[in-house]
Amino acid sequence: MQQPSFHALLYGGDYNPDQWTEDVWLADMRLMKLAHVTMVSINIFSWALLEPQPGIYHFAQLDRIMNMLAQHDIAADLATATASPPTWMSRLYPTMLPVTRDGTRMTHGSRQHYCPNGRDYRRKATALVQRLAQRYAGHPALSMWHINNEYGCHVSQCYCDTCAVAFRVWLQQRYQTLDTLNYAWWTNFWSQRYYDWQDILPPRLSPAQNNPGQVLDYWRFMSDSLLACYRLEADILRSVTPHVPLTTNLMVAFKPVDGFSWASHMDIISFDMYPANTTPAWETALSHDLMRSLKGGRPHLVMEQSPSQVNWMAQNPQKRPGHMRLQSMQALAHGADGVMFFQWRQSKAGAEMFHSAVVAHDSSEHGRIFRQVAQLGGELHHLSPHILGSRINAQAAILMDWHNWWAVEYLPGPSDRLRYWEQIKAHYHALHSLQVAVDIIQPASDLSQYRLIIAPLLYMLRPQVANNLQHFVAQGGTLLVTFFSGIVDQNNHVVLGGYPAELRTLLGIHVEEFDPFTPEMSNELAIQEEPLQGTYPCTLWGELIHLEGAQALGVFTSDYYANQPALTMHSFGQGRAYYLATQPSDELLVRLARLLCQQANVAPVLQSPEGVEVTKRVRADGRAVYFLLNHTEQAQQVTLPMGCFTSLLDEKRVEGSVEIAAVGVIVLLSETAEGGFEQYL
Length: 681
Ligand code: GAL
Hints:
Helix 1 (22-34) links the parallel strand 1 (10-15) and strand 2 (39-42). Helix 10 crosses helix 14 (420-433) and helix 14 (420-433) packs across helix 17 (586-600). The chain is 30% helix and 21% strand. With 681 residues, it is α/β, with parallel strands linked by helices. It has 3 domains: 10-152 and 242-387, Glycosidases (TIM Barrel, Alpha-Beta Barrel); 396-600, Class I glutamine amidotransferase (GATase) domain (Rossmann fold, 3-Layer(aba) Sandwich); 612-680, Golgi alpha-mannosidase II (Immunoglobulin-like), CATH 2.60.40.1180. The protein has 17 helices and 29 strands. It has a 10-stranded mixed sheet with strand order 12-11-13-14-21-20-19-16-17-22, with helices on both faces. A 9-stranded parallel sheet has the order 5-4-3-2-1-9-8-7-6, with helices on one face. The longest helix has 29 residues, at 212-240. It binds beta-D-galactopyranose. Beta-D-galactopyranose (GAL) binds at residues 149-150, 153, 272, 274, 304, 306, 310, 342, 352, 355.
C-alpha cells in the first residue's frame, strides 16, 4: 500500500483538454498558474478517444497533455478512463450493457453503461489500464491514479444473466453449501427452498417482496462486484507503478458502496462533494468526518466540488459569494489535504454545458468565479506548509455499518420510515452543535481511543459487535444505543429470547414490543430530573420497555406504555450504557449529547457563537491549527483559548479573542505544542 506524500495541499480539478484545441490548452496553463493549481484530474472520460477501434490505441494526444502538465509543474491525477466505454463496445459485446431490475437492458449514449461483472467490459478495461500504466510509468507528471469514476453512481446494481452467474459464485464462496444458504435465507418460508445453484437469481422483479436475505446479499455482492472492478485495475497499477498512490472518487454516504471495505484498497480517500445551497454546514461536516474516518483519520481529498452552480438539480442557483471558499476551508478544517473542482473549463456543449467551471464560457480571468478560485488557490498555497498532514483528534464516535443500512431499509415492516443515514445525521448534528470532534467508525473497530460512542439504529449486530461494545463500556466508556437496535444477526435473523438480544445485559433492559408511528402519531418523553428535566415531543417510534438493572431517566407520557421507560441508563463495569427508545426533538438530542459529553469527559474544541464552527487539527510537532468558520451572514466574535496564535491567512499575531467576518474563515496556529497525533498513525 502506497502512503501518499504530497508536498502541498492539492488544488485543481477535472480537466478535459481533449474537448478543446491546443491553443486553449496553453491559455489553460496560464490560468492554472494564476489560480495556484497544483494538480488536475485528466483522462476521466477519454476511453473513446484512446481506443477508437478495438485494440487500436491512440496515446499521442494524452502524451502531449501529460508533457504539457509536466512542463508547467502541474501534477496529473491520471484517470484510467474506464467509466465510459466506447460506443463500438456495446455493438461488439452487447451483454456488457447493464440490465435493470425489471429486465430492461440499457444502452450507451450517456456514461457508465457497463455491467460490473461483464467479462468483456473487464477484459477491455484491464487491457486499457495495462497500456496506460506501462506508457506513463515514470512520467514526471504522473502523481496519482484516479481509478474509474464514481463507481455505482448511475448503475449501482445490475440484474443481468452474467450477474446471476457471478452471484452464484459469490454465494458459493460465502455459504459453501446450499443447505447453509437455505438456512441463511430462511427459504422454508413461502416455498423458496433451493435445490440447485442454477435456480438462484438476482432479486429481480417478482410478485411480492423479495426474500430479505437474498436482497441483503445482493447489496453485499454488488458492492463487492464494483470493488472487484476497482481491484482489477488497482492490481495492474500497483504492479507497474508501485510508488504511485491510488484513489477513486467515492460519493458522500453512498448506500451501494461499503466505504469501509473499499478503504483498505485505496491509498487516499477522495470523494465528490455537492451540497445544495440549502444544505446545512453540519451536514457537509459529517461528510468529511465520514470520509476521513474511512481510513483511520488519514487526510482525505475532495476530488470534486462545483465552483458555483451544478446542472443536475431541478433548478441550479449559483453558490453565493464566499460560500465556495467557506466550504473549501471546512474541508481542510475536517482533515482534508486538498480540494478540487468539477471542472476546470466549462463545456461548450453536452450534458454538462451549464455546469459551472473555474473558467466560464467567457474564458475570462476577471469574472467572480475565477477570481474567487484564484484567491482560494493563493490561500491554500500559503496554508499548505502549516497544515499538510495534520490530524483531527476525536474522542467521540458514531457507529456506522453499511450492512446494517442495507438490512434495516429493506424490511418486511415494521416501518418504511426508518432511514439509517438520517438517524446518524440526527445524532451527529447534536454533537456538531456542541463543537465536538467526531469520527464515524465501524461497530467492530477498535474503540479504545474514544470516550463516547453513539450507536443509532443498530438493528443488525454483526459478529464481535456486542462484545466490543460491552468491553468499551466495561472499561469506562459512555455508550448511547438508540431504538430498534440489537434485533438481528448478520443473516438478518432475529436473535430470539427478547430484544435487544445481545445488548440486553449491557443496556439492562428488555424491549417487549416496538411500536412504529405513522406520520400522524406522536408521543412525549418526560424527564423529571435535571439536567434534562422537561417534556419533549417524540416521533417515529415507541417501545414497551422493562428495566433489568437500568434506571429510567425519562418515560413516555401517553398511550399504552405511558410512564414506562423511554430513556434509560445502566451502569456497567466502569462505564454507562444509555438507551433511547424513540426519536425525540432536536432540543433533547442536543441536551442529551451535552450530558453524555460531560460524563464522558469529551470537551468541545472551543465554545463559539451559534453558526460558528470550530475544529482543530494537530500537527506532528504537537502544534494545533484551529479553524474558525463563520456560517452566518454577520460578523462574529470568538473567545480563544489561552496562549498566542498566528492568524495564518493574514499573518497577524492574536490572543484573547478574534472577530470573524460574515461567511469568513480564520485559521490560527498555536505557538506552543499541545501533544501530537502519533497514537493514531
Ligand atoms: C460527478 C461526476 C462528474 C460530473 C459532476 C457534475 O458526479 O463525477 O463527472 O458529472 O458530477 O456535478
